[in-house]
Amino acid sequence: MAERPIPDQVMTELSNYVATIPDGQELLFADRFPEKRWNRIC
């Protein structure tokens, strides 16, 4: 998969989200995203 630049607004939101993840949570998101779902989002 080719890499694409990530917009500043998305990086800001992601940074804010990561800062609020509870201690001990090992996954970035609470649920799992299969590859097909990611492809629909992107």
Largest sheet: none
Order of helices and strands: HH
Number of strands: 0
Q: Helical content, roughly?
A: 40-55%
Strand content: under 5%
Mean pLDDT: 84
The tally of helices reads 2
What shape does the CA trace take?
flat
- The unreliable regions are none
Structural class: mainly alpha
For the record, give the distance between the C-alpha atoms at the N and C termini, rounded to a whole number: 12 Å
Q: What value does the Rg take, in angstroms?
A: 12 Å
Features:
mainly alpha, 45% helix
Overview of the structural elements:
The protein has helices spanning 8-19, 35-41. It is an all-alpha fold and 42 residues long. The mean pLDDT is 84.
Secondary structure elements and pairings:
Layout: H1 8-19, H2 35-41
Brief description of this entry?
By secondary structure, the chain is an all-alpha fold.
